Amino acid sequence: MAPRSRRVTSADVARDAGVSRATVSFVLNNTAHQKITDATRQRVLAAAAKLGYAPSPAARTLRYGRSDVVLGLLPDWPLGHAVGNLIQELTLAFAKRNLTFVVHSSVRGARSLSDIWKALTPAAVLAFEPFTDSDAAAMRSAGIEVIVALYDSSGLGAEASITSANAIGAAQARHLAASHRRLGYVYPDDERVAVFARPRLDGVRSVCAELGLPEPDVRTIPLTPDAAASTIRTWLAADPPVTGICAFNDEFAMTVLAGLRKLGLEAPRDMAVIGVDDSPAAALACPPLTTVVEDLPAVAELYADTVMRALDGPEASASPVEPRIRLEVRESA
Amino acid sequence: MAPRSRRVTSADVARDAGVSRATVSFVLNNTAHQKITDATRQRVLAAAAKLGYAPSPAARTLRYGRSDVVLGLLPDWPLGHAVGNLIQELTLAFAKRNLTFVVHSSVRGARSLSDIWKALTPAAVLAFEPFTDSDAAAMRSAGIEVIVALYDSSGLGAEASITSANAIGAAQARHLAASHRRLGYVYPDDERVAVFARPRLDGVRSVCAELGLPEPDVRTIPLTPDAAASTIRTWLAADPPVTGICAFNDEFAMTVLAGLRKLGLEAPRDMAVIGVDDSPAAALACPPLTTVVEDLPAVAELYADTVMRALDGPEASASPVEPRIRLEVRESA
DNA sequence: ACGTGTCGTTAACACGTTATAGTGAGTGCC
DNA sequence: GGCACTCACTATAACGTGTTAACGACACGT
User: Is B101 helix (H, G, I), strand (E, B) or coil?
Assistant: First the structure.
């Protein structure tokens, strides 16, 4: 246990190598227009390695006025499998671009938003929900270059939003419409996920209109089999009966499956159900759940590119790439 | 769109308020032993608010030599519901202590470990897996004060490890032992989660020994119903048959349930299954899954306290608090 | 010998903050 | 008036980095 190990600075390396701090900096950063003798270069490199020198990111950030950190702001709703995967893909995508992606969960009751980015000096902030105007203004005046709100209806994230979220609902509806004349939608009972839920529902709606089907029957239910059962009864009693169900995600889809079992019914014979996310549990449900899954690596690349463009300069405009949607067809629909 | 908005510094505030930079600092930090006239204090506050001043965290960190950021290093295995919750609880726990908890997913192929903490100057690093000696040494020489490896078998995290992880397996075994004479264990097929799996299995083993039951029958299976089915056949054919199954987590437990369905068998009549995590899908499985769930807020508090103690000074020793384990009894066992 | 370059290196500054030492004005005391 | 002392504030030194301008040494051409 080192008592309170002092930091190794570039001055230490310089002293050890018998050169000045500037020379150390030139060597370690490979400054282009600076000639350094091979002998001293090796001496500096050896000293740095010996002492285990690592430049202070704080000093570096202070000097450059910008760090290479991209801060991802997670909303406070429960983080499932999908978000976990997206985080990993984003980390990978930003790493490819020499940026460090870091995530903060903005759970309610924790530090205020300003405290968070005040503690980090990120180069960019990436969020799932739109910022308030004052927050956005504050960030800009704090020198944070980019503010991208995913799934926001305005600003940089807009094009990304429309493509992916609507397409998910659309894919659900198209698959069900092949064999069902009336569709239902399970809307989440947590208003906080509306940023995702609304566009997905819109996708279902527009496909119904396009194919000449009646409006989808939208119900908001909690994650309990009993609630699902009573909703299912209503659906089947309608005229014409609602037999194809698009769920907001796999959890709500599995709730419908549980409701069906409770009523002694069976999917897809009595009612077809389709989810979103392809969570690990989806393949293990009974019956195995048909689900829609986004190409997360592609989505991550899209966001990373958007951030890079904004960092390099505001003049380059976005080139919206349609993220690919895949249908994992199992037995429930 | 501001072209490239310059940062607002304390010098700007000072100029606007007609005082020196030092005075601004005194006012904004409420320096105790410094008397400031109420008039000037208000003037400074007003100027800061007007200009939207936010101190530069980089400069602050450089000055203090330590930031208020705690970096959580996530392993590269798939992040499920449990990890998501733990992150939220940790964020909350650290926020209570005026620390900013931030997470980086160390996905394979991304930046190397050194690049990550080099980019952040965290006050402490919290990881699920033990560090290599060279990494640990490098961090210390970079001035990072605390390095806590959760679930590590040595060092600061040790006491936390034993308590929680072993207790989970023990709780599973105790519940099953009430009505089953021979237990089986579903070990994950992903070696990366061994840090969790091993202690849990140890908990099951020690309870079996304590109660005079034979050694648990450990099997490693992938997350496919077919694999589970063939393992189930072997278990039931054994003499005496293995009828109580502890699974590494809910997903593996649900795989066993799926295997049972495939064989036309039923839980808990033919075989009892118990999982870990109480993921949302557990309550929706058929039959609803009995599962062990940790008191995540308590665990988060424990870790936060450990970090705080290490930050305040290395002399204070740990006071291990046994995190509470709860059994969510449903129908599968 | 003397300007003219090039080469390798270094002194010095700036980034924005906090803390320590100090400064000038005012006040009380003898 | 001189001294001590508080008061409200300011000048300045770090923290560790990257970079610009300068500088000595040396070679070269005339």
Answer: strand
